[in-house]
Amino acid sequence: MDTRTYSPHIVKYIPFLYVVWADDLLSASEISVFKKAVTEDHLSPEEKKLITSWLNPKTPPADEVITSWKHLIDKSGVKLVESETYPLTSFSMKMSLPGHGEEELSDEKLKFIEINLGIQPNHYRHLFDVETQQVPKANFYDPAKIDAVLKGPHASYIDTFREFLSDPAFQWKISRDKDTFRPRVLEQVKLLASAGYGAMAYESRYGGIDNMPAYAGIFENLMFIDGSLTIKFGVQFGLFGGSIQNLGTKKHHDQWLKATGEGTLLGCFAMTETRHGSNVRGIKTTATYVRETDSIVIDTPGENDNKEYIGNALHSTMATVFAQLIVNGTNQGVHAIVVRVRDDDGNLIPGVRIEDNGYKLGLNGVDNGKIWFKNVSVPRENLLNRFGDIDKDGNYTSRISNPNKRFFTMLGTLVGGRICVAKGAVGGAKLALATAVKYALHRRQFNSGEKIQEDLIMDYPSHQLRLITPIAQTYVYHVTLEHMIRQYTDASETSRRKIETQVAALKALITDFSNKTIQECREACGGKGYLLENRIGDLKNDVDIFTTFEGDNTVLLQLAAKGVLTDFKSEFNSDSYGDILKLVGTQLGDRLTTFNPLFTGNTDKEHLFDPDFHLETFQYHVRRLTFTAASRIRRYVKKGIPPQQVSLNIQTHLLALGRAYGVMLSYEIFSGFVKTLEDEKMQFIFRKLGALYALHHIREHAAWYLEHGYISGAKSKAIRQRVERLCTELRPHVVSLVDGFGIPEHCMTAPISTN
Hints:
The strands form four sheets. Strands 3, 4, 5, 7, 8 and 11 form a six-stranded mixed sheet that branches. This protein starts with 7 loop residues before the first helix and ends in a 16-residue tail after the last helix. The protein has four domains: about 5-130, no CATH class; about 145-260, Butyryl-Coa Dehydrogenase, subunit A, domain 1 (Orthogonal Bundle), CATH 1.10.540.10; about 265-410, Butyryl-CoA Dehydrogenase, subunit A, domain 2, CATH 2.40.110; about 415-745, Butyryl-CoA Dehydrogenase, subunit A, domain 3 (Up-down Bundle). α16 (about 415-440) packs antiparallel against α17, α17 (about 460-490) packs antiparallel against α18 and α22 packs across α25. About 55% of the residues lie in helices and about 10% in strands. With about 750 residues, it is α/β, with parallel strands linked by helices. It has 31 helices and 13 strands. It is elongated. The longest helix is centred in the middle third of the chain and has 30 residues, at about 460-490. Belongs to the acyl-CoA oxidase family. Keywords: FAD, Fatty acid metabolism, Flavoprotein, Lipid metabolism, Oxidoreductase, Peroxisome. Its EC number is 1.3.3.6. It is an enzyme of class 1 (oxidoreductase).
């Protein structure tokens, strides 16, 4: 063992040298940082030469030299104080200046290295066999400021709402009996309505403030209380009320919207059928106009053509029923009609049959049911006629002549529901992550054998990877959905087609992410996560269905991919591929280039953390999948393969394209948002979260990028290492990040999050 005595100027660098070589992640950029500090320091030529000789990756220090460094550190008698501003700098200075007390010592060159290499105590505390004064969290970032960034322009509404949720009526409790659970949720919905929260997206004349983004924020925050309440709230005010608002006209608004927002008129949204879920155009329920009575007759043609899984079905008085509208013997396609299903005394209207769906995996506070109609007659005026109407002479009219375009325009007005579902999923992930992180900050497990106290599980790299990575994703998805709800609110009918494509990809991507994250949190909490009292179990069961309702994720990804293929410019509703061939064949082929080896093999830290690299990587993924999908379509079409069979042949390809597009879109929106942050401190942490999101997704698809020669094996390895390193760099701030979600204390009711 090399036990030579080093000069104090050499000694102060030894802890840093030991950390970077033990870390085994010394890139060119990190070497340049180290060399810059050494070069500019007041060292003798011999001292500079010696330190520089230890910074060559091709001829690293001998094992016995590194071991001698550890021996010097361990025998120093210096305490590592993590609460100091620059703990490794202070520790190193105390080593080089023996006899100094507990005061924090500083050195600008060492601070330069510590800052620019992002060295955190959890990178090296296990390397040093010294007394350590640990701190479970850092206070560098103010959670309230982070929360303010996330709340954005509707902060005042969110803050008031969170305080409102402290009412004892919203206190979470274990509920396993649907017959007591459902009435409680109904009363909670009515309480929210009485305070004006249900009507927030409606115009002021109907009791609202005409603020859809604020309503969506309220919806997300409801997940901190209960999933059933969130969905019941969404069905009443978003689906039923939203259908009247978006598909009806002023006469419908005047008749029903105010009462809906007040919760005095309960309604449901009857679209899905037992035999037809995702394929709304194929539903079998009919709405036949009868000229003699100037009415519309709603009928369920077969026993299995009933409306299925309809939320609020057991409590509703009215239903928005989607049916094939038949006028003068001609089927005009799917339209929405408001149908009364119960009288004022709560009795079913003659011809209406409703059955309880019974117990589900989750959301048992929501009264889902099946509905059949047997020649139920409603006035002609009950047709929600924004896009299609029957005049007083019994003739059908519409300003959109193309039935397919009319259908998709109609559904496009309901995309806000998909955004809210995705926001609800993010809310569920936030609560699960906050619970799991707070548990990990006091739960200890295992030690090195000599330590009296076991280590916090949050300090294990594997635990950081499983929790901090989804925290970064949660931030990206929150910002993305805030952007999308604003875009949706301000969009014209023509631009909503593009937004529908974007939201289809995002809803699928984010709800799938939320399910996986909540499961990861359950496992990260061990047996405690399995206890109902800690809420992760209910979150897991409640959010599970988010991947299915408001559009099955598999179907939505294909919808998004088809939107990408047509470049948002031509309709894809007819299963015709002609427009795709024209666009893709000429626009994408020339954008795929041979990659520069200096790019594919670049493992430099600055490059790997560069947002431009991340965005170009995601864009390439989408471009390449688009090009190859279009090429396959062209080959099949030339062979005369029917369009439907072509879709089946490339279905898995479309799914991959839809996912890639969602990832690219999310990062594109998030990186643009980060540039708008004026607070440099906030911008720094958000940029780091974005880098973790990007590198995680690139790593997740490393096999694909390797197959296409976009990255080298060395770069793939460096990306994996950087993901792990970013997690450890964010570890000291993990409490600030989950507190930055803004979950009120009265909603953090899991015992493991407080004990």
